[in-house]
Amino acid sequence: MDAAQVALTAQCLGPLTDQLMPYFLALRAETDAVLAKRLPLAGGKAYPYGRCEEITQDLYARLAQRLTKPADPVTQALHDFVAQGGVVRSIWGVLREQYFQNAIQFGALYVDVSNDTVFVTKPQIEILPIEQSGLVPVRDLAHFRQTAERYWHATVYANHLVPTLAPLLPIITVSAGKLRPGLQSACDYMIDLMRRDAFQQAEAWLRDGPAPPPELQLPDLPADLRPWTTDTRQEAVQACRRARAAGCQLDAEWRTARVLDYLRSIRA
Fold first, then answer.
1. Residue 229 gets which letter from DSSP?
2. CA 167 to CA 240: how far, in whole Å?
3. How many domains does the chain have?
């Protein structure tokens, strides 16, 4: 943790220690009032189970709106913290080597505003020094697969069903009662992790990982995203090699186009 962020957090937010928990609980109540009515069951379980991403995104947006016009002492302190260079951002990773989790970083503080979305009996909010949180970045595809197997009870396959997206989304997971079969993982962190080594680890998994069984299909996949050949493993591997040769790991427009392709695939 950057020493300047530690010092700024202590200076701006330290005096608010007793006020931060009720502040975020109030924001969470606003979020719950909207999302609990709108979101369907996740894995057969009622809200807030499985909704850490949606809760964190909604609350973060509410906070951002408040910060534009501070109207209370806590919001003013958070506004001043940001104005002086304090880091406020949503973060994602593997929590205590058990499951994927979203949270918000405030300088040296970890604020989990969806702490009850795996075990619904836990407190809604958890606030800790970030180094004590147990949240770590996903190290590589193996780390992601292990967590998906542990958390989602997922069976993990190589993405031979949508070869053009395989360089960025090389994994397919099947998790009965948790998530519908689909490509993983279309979050900024994992997409950029695949780009970081020019799709080398994606290619290795696509080459060596288990192929999806014939009965596994992604319904209504747009025709231009379906495999063009019967050797779908090789087609996915070649997609990585072609993308690397073309320098696509550095091409923001190519990345955006593939994300839009992914969105087309799930909208279908």
1. S
2. 5
3. 2
Number of other CB atoms surrounding residue 262 within 10 Å: 20
Sign of the dihedral defined by the CA atoms of residues 237, 217, 186, 246, in that order = positive
Domain span including residue 10:
3-136
Residue with tokens 């948790």: 178
pLDDT tops 90 at residue 105: yes
Task: Give the N- to C-terminal CA distance of the chain in Å, as an integer.
Answer: 43
Final residue of a structural domain among 136, 163, 187: 136
Q: Is residue 116 located within the same domain as residue 148?
A: no
Tens digit of each residue's pLDDT (9 = 90 or more) over 152-174:
899 999 999 999 999 999 999 99
Helix, strand, or coil here: 93?
strand
Burial of 238 (0-12, 13-18, 19+ CB in 10 A): middle
What distance in Å separates the CA atoms of residue 138 and residue 190, rounded to the nearest whole number? 8
pLDDT band (50, 70, 90) for residue 176: confident
Q: Locate the DSSP E strands across the chain.
A: 88-95, 99-106, 109-112, 126-129, 135-136, 155-158, 171-175, 179-184
Mean pLDDT of the chain: 93
Question: 79, 80, 86: which is closest to 5 by C-alpha?
Answer: 86
Tokens of 244: 């690397």
Q: Are both 254 and 220 inside the same structural domain?
A: yes
Do 43 and 106 belong to one domain? yes
**Angstrom distance (rounded) from CA 83 to CA 79:** 6
CA dist list (Å): 243 to 15, 165, 167, 172, 259: 51, 10, 8, 20, 15
In terms of domains, do 26 and 91 share one?
A: yes
